[in-house]
Amino acid sequence: MMHLVQHVLQAFFLGIGGLFRFCFFQLLNVSFEDKYSKDLEYYWDNQNKTVDKNGFTTSQKNFLAGLIIFISFLFLIKKIEG
């Protein structure tokens, strides 16, 4: 049971992070220049274990971005509640 919960939470953070990174880089492409990938599969490819020049895999970057977005939403909700 614990393994299932862990898998669901990990998939949630990977998905949210991948979607956020895709939207963010598309915004950068429109605002500045087209130098980031426009392929959604690139951002949702959590099976790719290739390490980028910054030392992270795509899934590690997605997980971190998803975790940061989730924590930011928690702080935002807490701030709105007063």
TrEMBL record:
It comes from the Bacteria. Keywords: Membrane, Transmembrane, Transmembrane helix. The chain crosses the membrane at residues 12-32, 63-80. This is Uncharacterized protein.
